[in-house]
Amino acid sequence: MESDDYVGRYGFEVEPFQEDYTGRLSWGVLGNLLLRCASLHSAHYGFGYNRAEEDAYAWVLSRLVIELDEMPRTGEQFTVETWVGRIYRLFSDRPYAVRAADGRVLGYALSVWALIDKATRRPVDLEQMADPEFRRSLVGDRPCPVQPPRRIRVKAAAPTATYTARYTDIDINGHFNSIRYLELVLNLFPKERYATHRVARVEMAYSSETYCGETLSLYCEEVAPGQFAVEIRKNADTQPQVAVRADITFKPYEQE
Q: Is the dihedral angle over the CA atoms 223, 180, 38, 198 positive or is it negative?
């Protein structure tokens, strides 16, 4: 097979109730669609959730970077392409391209995954575990021009907001949903900002799991014009631990 045969392509349409108040696809929906495409693609080639379950392993999202020039609007069709870009010891890179109906690239994304042994909760060496089909599916020569992950540090002493994890935040593994963290970050900024500025880049670095009932404290500071660093700590008043670090960049909308 040619390497392009291992690229998954999944078509969608922005339906009512999937958009934000500006009429564009919401970031929460986009994030979940990216993860859904990853699941569909990996399952198709035999190294997805079901295979991992049989082998007592689980795929865990370590980092997510999304860079968009344009977000699809209500009623517009778009395609998500995804492939396996790299396998290196404890992690595997999965890039994405988001395309408009006419084939234009709207943006790219990159997710980094680890395979965890569910009994020991330790990552597995993928270079030792990867079966031939997994290795054949690598598409290392396909471009995904996102900026590399950044070193995210926040010096703010006081939290900008706090949040307690509840029922609707928790996924099937009993942990705080990875895309809900993204939504918490977006909610740190006023509604009016999203009318005049688009999110050009968002990066999420996942460090530790949060459970129902735990309190999250969000620390935010502007590190450059339009660029903000965010650190989400759980149980900050008792046993502080970083759950997620995030970096978000806004750019003004161009005149249409």
A: negative
DSSP letter (8 states) at residue 45: T
Question: Dihedral angle at the C-alpha atoms of 236, 164, 150, 60, nearest 10 degrees?
Answer: 110
Instruction: Catalogue all structural domains in the chain, each as residue range(s) with its CATH number.
Output: 3-136 (3.10.129.10), 161-252 (3.10.129.10)
CA 152 – CA 150 distance, rounded (Å): 6
Q: What Å distances lie between residue 163 and 26, 192, 216, 243, CA to CA?
A: 21, 22, 5, 13
The amino acid at 178: S
Type of residue found at 50: N
Q: What predicted TM-score, i.e. pTM, was given to this entire model?
A: 0.91
Q: Using CA atoms, how far apart are residues 168 and 134, in angstroms rounded to an integer?
A: 34
d(CA 79, CA 96): 10
C-beta of residue 73 within 8 angstroms of C-beta of residue 14: yes
Q: Among 102, 128, 106, 105, which Cα is nearest to 117's?
A: 128
Q: Kind and range of the H or E element at 256?
A: none
- For the chain, what's the residue count? 256
Encode pLDDT of 34-86 as tens digits. Answer: 999 999 998 887 765 455 556 677 788 999 999 999 999 999 999 999 999 88
The amino acid at residue 195 is: A
